[in-house]
């Protein structure tokens, strides 16, 4: 009886607004990164061009950079005084910092390595001859992409989406720097956990942490299963 | 319909190649690795763009560097069989072939794909994926897919090299049968001379992207255009000598070889004193009996090696005493046995005058004979 009431108490103290915002951010990031990351992954997997190494390094940078450093530069780049911030304001009437829009833009950038890397590996695994066989069989580049490349690369693409989704739910430093912690606008579940822990509200912190733990575990499980199914083929 | 191409480039692989292949003809491109064979095939298919030259098929121009024409692979209508087949691994055999039937209405494709698979003797395997097929079956799916496109040209890139010897023989036989019904140019890239000799009407010998000679396989073997062609076609009997006398009246050019006279058919371009290269095919070397040693071009020799395989023996023998040369010839295993052809045996060999082919010494310095 006691356990049931503590469980329902945990559910009651979950910040549903923050969770919903996190899920929206994660879905929007995954959706918008999908075409961009596919384009970048194919480019890096199959082409050779000047400064390719520099581009690859730049995409990998968010993996190693402290989130606060990345967040600081994004804050500078998105701020009201920056050309980008001003252009965005002129165009939409909204600010890029301390807003959901800015958070989404930052999320796209810090998720690039998580989205591009698995896709790049799976596109690189498609032999050049297989794509050429499609072309000489009469398939246009677009048909080749849809009917040959996508089905062959899909485990990598799905893995990239799962990783991006889970990583967005958990990102803390960049989100705090760029978004602040405005309820309903930029306060994600990761920040809500921090707030609750700071306020010694252990039940809420524990409930939300457990939820993120389960979601992240499912995502990583999905990635590894997709990886194995790709190996079997 | 005739396929004619002139391909030029300096990098990544140098090319200076002339290719011509008629309808119903099978042209083999032969040469060592890195000689540009596969690159030439890729140029014909539109998968690689050379710096210069042109590719024409019938009255269509597929590529012309000067006029800026470069038709995409999708619009060239070539059937291409890749070295490792390049089947679509996620699709069944039938779906692989159906993808090459884009020129047909969607509802006709399945039946047509089954037709092409049946022609490749693959009935019952339509639903299998490439990984569930043997190497030979994969190659037949690749051929079915290439032909399903109803191509104007069929290109085969080392298409028989990835299977075992027994399967290879079966596949070669099948291609020979299939060829009779194909009235299109067929270009086959191979490093296997036997395969080229078996299948090809003509063969083009390549070296560093340059076409050295194009002729029927027998002619290339009997009359190589240069010492380099002879070496590239694995001729065992390549030697050097000096022209000592020209006797046009008796159709003879006399060469000094190992200090002895050797008669070849008269070669007007060679002058007395010229150093020449000469080649004699294995079939032009005859084992003579003891009482026939007074025949022309007969040399005493000592057997150094006998390799027997399926009823045939390849024998290598040392000729000459001081300056030695090794002559190679072929006889039946039974004859070799009966005549006691074992290492160390003393024999007499006649080099047939008409089979001896005189060549300029420097293969790449033009066709000139000289001292």
Concise account of the structure shown:
The complex is a heterodimer of chains A (233) and B (371). Chain A is mainly alpha-helical and 233 residues long.
Question: Could you list some keywords that capture this structure?
Answer:
heterodimer; A: 233 residues; mainly alpha; MetI-like fold; B: 371 residues; alpha+beta; OB fold (Dihydrolipoamide Acetyltransferase, E2P); 2 domains; 5-stranded antiparallel sheet; globular
Task: Describe the protein's architecture and organization.
The complex is a heterodimer of chains A (233) and B (371). Helices cover 81% and strands 0% of the residues of chain A. Chain A is mainly alpha-helical. Chain A has one domain (25-232): Orthogonal Bundle (MetI-like fold), CATH 1.10.3720. In chain A, helix 9 packs antiparallel against helix 12. The radius of gyration of chain A is 20 Å and the shape is globular. The termini of chain A are far apart. The mean pLDDT of chain A is 89. By secondary structure, chain B is α+β, with helices and mostly antiparallel strands. Chain B has two domains: 2-232, Rossmann fold, CATH 3.40.50; 242-359, RNA polymerase II/Efflux pump adaptor protein, barrel-sandwich hybrid domain (OB fold (Dihydrolipoamide Acetyltransferase, E2P)). Chain B contains nine helices and 21 strands. In chain B, the strands form four sheets. A six-stranded mixed beta sheet of chain B has the order 7-8-9-3-10-11, with helices on both faces. In chain B, helix 3 crosses helix 4 (135-148). Chain B is globular. The two termini of chain B are 46 Å apart. The interface between A and B is medium-sized, with 18 and 26 residues.
CATH topology of the largest domain in chain B: Rossmann fold
For the termini of chain A, the CA-CA separation is: 50 Å
The CATH class of chain A is identified as Mainly Alpha
**What would CATH call the homologous superfamily of chain A?**
MetI-like
Distance between the termini of chain B: 46 Å
Q: What's the total helix number of chain A?
A: 12
Share of residues in strands of chain A: under 5%
Low-pLDDT segments, ≥5 res of chain A = none
Average of the residue pLDDT scores of chain A: 89
Uncertain residue ranges of chain B: 363-368
CATH architecture verdict of the largest domain in chain B:
3-Layer(aba) Sandwich
Gross morphology of chain A: globular
């Amino acid at each position: 009886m006691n356990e049931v009431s503590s469980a329902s108490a945990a559910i009651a103290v979950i910040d549903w607004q923050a969770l919903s915002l996190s899920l929206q951010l994660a879905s929007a990031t995954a959706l918008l990164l999908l075409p961009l990351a596919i384009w970048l992954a194919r480019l890096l997997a199959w082409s050779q061009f000047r400064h390719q190494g520099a581009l690859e390094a730049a995409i990998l940078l968010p993996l190693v950079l402290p989130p606060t450093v990345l967040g600081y530069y994004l804050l500078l780049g998105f701020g009201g005084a920056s050309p980008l911030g001003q252009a965005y304001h002129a165009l939409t009437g909204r600010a890029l910092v301390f807003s959901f829009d800015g958070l989404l833009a930052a999320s796209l950038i810090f998720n690039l390595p998580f989205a591009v890397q698995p896709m790049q590996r799976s596109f690189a695994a498609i032999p050049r001859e297989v794509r050429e066989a499609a072309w000489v069989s009469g398939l246009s580049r677009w048909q080749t992409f849809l009917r040959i490349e996508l089905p062959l690369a899909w485990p990598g693409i799905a893995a990239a989406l799962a990783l991006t989704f889970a990583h967005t739910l958990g990102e803390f430093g960049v989100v705090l720097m760029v978004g602040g912690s405005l309820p309903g606008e930029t306060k994600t579940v990761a920040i809500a956990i921090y707030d609750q822990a700071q306020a010694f509200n252990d039940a809420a912190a524990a409930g939300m942490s457990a939820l993120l733990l389960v979601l992240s575990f499912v995502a990583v499980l999905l990635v590894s299963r997709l990886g194995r199914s790709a190996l079997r083929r | 319909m005739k396929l004619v191409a002139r391909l030029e480039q300096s990098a990544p692989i140098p090319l200076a190649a002339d290719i011509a292949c008629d309808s119903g003809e099978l042209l083999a491109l032969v040469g060592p690795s890195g000689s540009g064979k596969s690159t030439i095939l890729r140029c014909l298919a539109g998968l690689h763009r050379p710096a210069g030259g042109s590719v024409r098929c019938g009255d269509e121009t597929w590529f012309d560097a000067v006029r800026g024409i470069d038709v995409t692979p999708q619009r060239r209508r070539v059937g291409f069989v890749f070295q490792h087949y390049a089947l679509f691994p996620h699709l069944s055999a039938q779906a692989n072939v159906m993808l090459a039937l884009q020129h047909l209405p969607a509802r006709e494709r399945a039946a047509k794909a089954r037709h092409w698979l049946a022609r490749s003797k693959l009935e019952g395997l339509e639903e299998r994926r490439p990984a569930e097929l043997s190497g030979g079956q994969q190659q037949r799916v690749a051929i079915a897919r290439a032909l399903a496109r109803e191509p104007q040209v069929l290109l085969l890139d080392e298409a028989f090299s990835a299977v075992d010897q027994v399967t290879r023989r079966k596949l070669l036989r099948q291609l020979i049968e299939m060829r009779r019904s194909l009235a299109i140019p067929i270009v086959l890239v191979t490093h296997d001379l036997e395969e080229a000799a078996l299948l090809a009407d003509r063969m083009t010998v390549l070296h560093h992207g340059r076409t050295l000679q194009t002729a029927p396989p027998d002619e290339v073997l009997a009359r190589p255009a240069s010492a380099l062609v002879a070496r590239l076609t694995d001729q065992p009997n390549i030697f050097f000598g000096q022209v000592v006398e020209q006797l046009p009246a008796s159709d003879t050019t006399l060469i000094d070889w190992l200090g002895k006279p050797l008669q070849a058919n008269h070669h007007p371009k060679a002058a007395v004193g010229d150093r020449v290269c000469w080649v004699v095919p294995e079939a032009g070397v005859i084992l003579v009996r003891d009482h026939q040693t007074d025949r022309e071009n007969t040399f005493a020799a000592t057997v150094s090696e006998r390799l027997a395989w399926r009823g045939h023996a390849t024998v290598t023998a040392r000729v000459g005493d001081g300056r030695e040369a090794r002559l190679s010839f072929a006889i039946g295993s039974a004859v070799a046995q009966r005549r006691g052809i074992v290492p160390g045996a003393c024999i007499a060999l006649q080099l047939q005058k008409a089979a001896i082919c005189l060549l300029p010494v420097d293969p790449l310095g033009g066709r000139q004979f000289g001292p």
